[in-house]
Amino acid sequence: MCGIASWVAAVAALLAVWFVPGVASAQALTIDGEPVEVPLVASDLFRPSIDATRSVWTDDASMPGRNTLFVRTSLYWVNKPFVWERGDESIDTIVGNAFALSIGAGYGLGRARVGVTAPVYLWSNGDLQTASGAALGDPNLDARVVAVEGENRARPGLAVIGRVGLPLGASNKQLGYSKVSWQLGLAADFQIDAFKLAANIGTHGVPPLDLGSVKINDLLWYKVGLGYEVRDNAGLSLDIAGHTAYSAFFKPVASPVEALLGGFFPIREDFLVQVFVGRGLTTGVGSPALRAGAALSYYRNPYADADLDGIPDSRDQCRDDPEDHDTWLDEDGCPDVDNDSDGFLDVDDGCPLDAEDKDDYEDHDGCPEGNALVTIELVSPDGEAVRMPSYRLVPRVGDPMAFSSSPTTQNLAEGSWLLEATADGMLPLSKTFEVPADGAMLVREIMQPEAKMGLLVLRILDPDGQPLAGTWKLDNLSYEYGASGGVGRREVPAGAHSVTARAPNYAPATVSVDVPIDGEAEVVVVLNPTRVRVTRERIDIDDKVYFEFDKAIIKPESYSLLDEVAQTIIDHPELLRIRIEGHTDSKGNDAYNMRLSQERADAVRMYFQNKGVEASRLVSIGFGETRPIDTNETEAGRANNRRVAFYIEERSD
């Protein structure tokens, strides 16, 4: 217990050192033979944004997206960030030069993004030191939460940002604070086509500092960033960042301001390069004479699917070769030319999922050969043998075998067999069973007596009570009966049943009914219109598919509509191929709109596949702003032009 108490006391003491306010200590040194005390202050204020793509330093308010990874590595040189003017007007360069590597990583959680940045100073010099090896700067825990999502030319975005700096850096080299620092503020942005303006403002809590002429407590910080996209993901940027102490509001020594001019361009789909150069605009501590550097950013798109096989690139082991979707190892994204690895290509293999046994007997067909002794016995519910049955055995490959006695014993090949049986006074029986490679097995099946019958009268109506021509099915049976004029009549087994009715452009509905023996039961099913309608050439929807601004992320309010479209495609197997089209309005440049519309069409295709629609039945294409259906001169017209449409390319009927 004493040992635990000692550890607790030690941790408490450490936290007290970090968090309890106090004037930052100073470092004593000798310059020109005179003793000088210099405050321990983080003189390099530069912390690149983790995820901004149109500015280097300024954070924007863009939506991070869910399950999105951001990584940014920056390498830069800074000259004279800390020049000290003593009371006798002598000037000393405390930090002359520093080369730094800044590493940042973030993770998107939808509206929120969390992250961490850590600068490593590879080399630095100044009047405190002639040269220095690597040293750590203060790591920062970083978070951003989007409150308002911006929209191009229509609405600015707004986010709350916060950071906590851990005092692990080289404060004795004027490259880190001696205690915990923190920032809390707001980020706003507004996009006008290729231009994006971002602004940050907030408060910065730092250890109190004594700079001689002024004493600094907490700071007001601000940033402004402007980015211009010249072409796809490539352009120019300008950042202006600064802060001032509340206790010395905009006094030069306590008010550093710095400007950075930059450029950005992609080197592949998920990677962005940024280069920048700038200088301080004031003489405050932290305002350098010059700064230059470059950054490499990585952004993983969760919807990327290079080979369009329905397997996201993040899980696709063969990104350039589409999965063949033959029910064999379809989750790895790679085509399988010999599923059972027996040396026979699937196109020549009689049993592509079952390996040839190579036992010198019919080894040319790719199928294993095996036989087992199988006894078939058909009985009634009371265990008595069924009299005079007629049945047959149907193998997966080969000709059926017919019999008329029970029990019977047969020599059957390994694999799946279908037993079909009929007998007077009994319901038909259909049963699948598996035969092993060898040995003996008993297949004993119970045949049920034919049920007593009754008459079911079904009426299908719309909400206004008008008859609807449709179809209906009983219980979980797959066969559907017609209801011409909205009325269906059929003899069914007496007893309790569930009845499911359908009609074109109406949602299916299920009701329960009890049919009496030799009697009649009437049931009414009311169907409500659906938002999805199938025509000869299109699948029309009564609503729109909504996306997050400037992204291919479907908004939750569109999930139910897309669920209806997906179920409609599944319910209509005659629709062999559906084209998903993405369209935008005319705002933004043509290439950007074309790419955004393609990504949004791809996102809808992926959504349908996740809901069970086969990938082979779907194709997605983006048309950008090339096919408007309304004017682009009004907001209403532009809203109509931003759409997702569904066209039927191929039918079987």
**Tally of helical runs:** 4
Q: Roughly what is the average pLDDT, rounded to an integer?
A: 83
The low-confidence runs, each spanning 5 or more residues with pLDDT under 50, are: 1-36
Q: What do we call the CATH topology of the largest domain?
A: Porin
CATH architecture of the largest domain: Beta Barrel
Reported for the largest beta sheet, the result is: 12 strands, antiparallel, barrel
Distance between the termini: 81 Å
- State the shape: elongated
Q: How many β-strand stretches? A: 37
Radius of gyration: 37 Å
What is the count of structural domains?
4
Strands of the biggest beta sheet: in what spatial order?
3-4-5-8-9-10-11-14-15-16-17-18
**What's the CATH C level of the largest domain?**
Mainly Beta
Class computed from helices, strands and strand pairing: mainly beta
Indicate the proportion of strand residues.
Answer: over 45%
CATH superfamily of the largest domain: monomeric porin ompg
Query: Helical residue percent?
Result: under 10%
